[in-house]
Amino acid sequence: MKTATRLFLLSTLAALPAAAGAADAATAPAAVDTSKWKCELCKFEDGVSGSVDVGAGYVSDSSYKFGEYNGLYKEGGYFIGDGTVRYRGKDAVYWDANASNLGLDARSLDAEGGQQGKYKLLLDYDELPHFISDSTKTPFIGNGSASLTLPAGFPAGATGLMPLASTLQPVDLRTKRKRLGVGASWTPVRAWDFGVQFRHETREGTKGTAGSFFVNAAQLIAPVDYETDQIDASASYTNDKFQAKFAYYGSIFRNSDASLTWQNPYTPALPGAVAGQLALPPDNQFHQLSASLGYQFTDRTRGTADIAFGRMTQDESFLAPTLNTTLAVPALPGASLDGRADTLNASLKLNSAVTDQLRLNAAYIHNDRDNRTSQATYDWVTTDMFLAAPRTNLPYSFTQDKLKLSADYRATALIKASVGYDYDEHERTFQEVDKTRENTVWGKLTTRALENVDLTLKLARGKRDNSGYQPVAAVTPPENPLLRKYNMADRTRDRAELRADIAASDKINIGFQVDRSEDDYSASTIGLTSGEDFNLSGDLTVLLTEQTSLHFFANRQVIKSKQSGSQTFSTADWQGRNEDTINLFGVGLKHAAIKGKLDVGADFIVTRTKSEISVNTGAGNSAFPNFYTSRDSLKLYADYHLKDDVSLRLGYWYERYDSDNWMLDGVAPNTIPNVLTFGEQSPEYNVHVIALSVRYKF
């Protein structure tokens, strides 16, 4: 009886769709014309849109440090000009253009457009200043050129005897980079893409350097007049399972000044040492061919391969060994270095989701630099005063092989575990160590400890050993045989990281992270013996109301290191310790004061750093002073919407910076008898910036 009833019900339910369809067909109205229907909720861009910001700002004080990269280095007003324009037309034609900081030295423009799926054109231009120092003073004439001369009254036996009071002149150190790029890409047939991009970059200005004559030295201003041309060209192929890309990259660097010459400001200790010469960065080139392949073996397994062949060359003519005409200097072994180094970079990667819970990853990376520069013996002159013992150049090469294996396993929806093994091997020529090997094992656990608490713990241990340490015989003067360079010395590294994310409520989120690493160079007698890095950070986000949100963050980092040295070319007889501490705190507020009309906000950041250096020689030497920096930065902003398409934007930025650097403070150009310095002082500033602009959206 029950079975018959169930069959009857199933038959009835199965017949309902057919019956309903028949009834609908009998009573259906005439077909409705939907060609003129319009989707009120579907917003498709069409035509021109964008925004323009125009206004003015004012900077209260001049400071190179404050405007180091942002262009706000000079007291006074500046123009605010920003904008973006978008065009969307028929047949997927589009154009985008952006402009930023047009009234500052740090300005940029870029444009992109074309037809989606067929072609794309690119144009970009940017300027980036670097304001290095505005407290530099020097008696040299011709700063910014390749030849520095001295006024009357020079040379002198010591800096205290130089006529600096009447000859020092302020000279700012600054550079400016300008870069113009054009490019295009196109898809002539399905699955194939081609692209080419060209960039021309110039860098002009001045920077600091130094030259010496035996025990006497002087800080000098070197010219910066560089040009770099870069080109990228590629062809790519893509289908459902296979992807390939073939590319060429080239970079050509040119320096308008081959050398910097300067007059000796000190009375020559030996005849003829009246002028010196320094080589500046030489012209050079780099060219590279590369290929990238990817293949999807199955839905769960993918492999990729990359390979790149490169060549670096440098063939700038040698400078004369000295400008001292009283020395009988032998001829150089050639007209130029004729330097060449070939590079090979390759990698293989395989990723496979073996099951829904288990994923395996493997990667092999090979890097090789083969320095093919010929060796030669060079007769040379030290500080334009003495003929020195001949030296032979050492064309350093290296090969690196890295293997990375890891596995990710999701035990439950709340627990995920990962383990891995990394192997890193370096082989070198003309170095103290022929081969180093480093093995690292690590594990990572991510879990939802509570309903609202996510925890991540990562532990790692690495151990590096070498094939034996032996000073390079060709290096003069010879190295202490007990010295161990930190990048080739035996080392044990332990790292630990803990991260917690807490959703305290639907309005409060808390993040906390602590990292610690320790390096132990137990086999190093002379050199770096230990290092520590401790990092503690936290962040808090609070949604006070629907209109107001608050954000806090804080970070503390402490970096320590210890090293040992020898004053007698023997066992360790002094120890040094460095400790750097960085503290950072910030708070931010966003508030919709009048919903849809007025938005206000504030950001406040406090930074404090301290560097401590102590050296123990066994004697009662005074300690080095500590190095301090502090910065307080406050930003306030308000956006008031006058209309749907017009808004008024007001911004205020205050920043205070102070620093104490014993290497600069109190060191005038003539403080050190045998070193003529720039007399730079530690930067400090109090700067206010006010900006008012109007944004128009169209």
* Gap from first CA to last CA: 74 Å
Q: How many E strands?
A: 37
Low-confidence stretches: 1-29
What's the Cα radius of gyration?
34 Å
Helical residues, percent: under 10%
What is the tally of helical segments? 2
Average pLDDT number: 93
Largest sheet: number of strands, sense, barrel closure? 26 strands, antiparallel, barrel
What's the short story on this structure?
The chain is mainly β. The chain is 4% helix and 60% strand.
How does this structure look, described?
β30 and β31 form a beta hairpin. The protein has a 26-stranded antiparallel beta barrel. Strands 7-13-14 form a three-stranded mixed sheet, with no helix packed on it. The relative contact order is 0.09. The protein has a domain of 208 residues. The N terminus is likely disordered. The longest helix has 26 residues. The protein starts with a helix and ends with a strand. The protein has 698 residues and is mainly beta. The chain is built from two helices and 37 strands.
What characteristics describe this protein?
disordered N terminus; 4% helix; mainly beta; 2 helices
Write the layout of secondary structure elements.
Blueprint: H1 2-27, E1 47-59, E2 76-88, E3 93-100, E4 108-115, E5 119-133, E6 137-138, E7 147-148, H2 164-167, E8 169-170, E9 173-186, E10 192-213, E11 216-238, E12 242-255, E13 259-263, E14 275-279, E15 284-296, E16 301-314, E17 339-353, E18 358-371, E19 377-378, E20 381-382, E21 386-387, E22 391-392, E23 398-412, E24 415-428, E25 435-450, E26 453-466, E27 483-484, E28 491-505, E29 508-520, E30 526-543, E31 548-565, E32 574-594, E33 598-616, E34 627-641, E35 646-660, E36 675-676, E37 685-697
Parallel strand pairs: 7-13, 11-36, 27-30
Antiparallel strand pairs: 1-2, 1-37, 2-3, 3-4, 4-5, 5-9, 6-8, 9-10, 10-11, 11-12, 12-15, 13-14, 15-16, 16-17, 17-18, 18-23, 19-22, 20-21, 23-24, 24-25, 25-26, 26-28, 28-29, 29-30, 30-31, 31-32, 32-33, 33-34, 34-35, 35-37
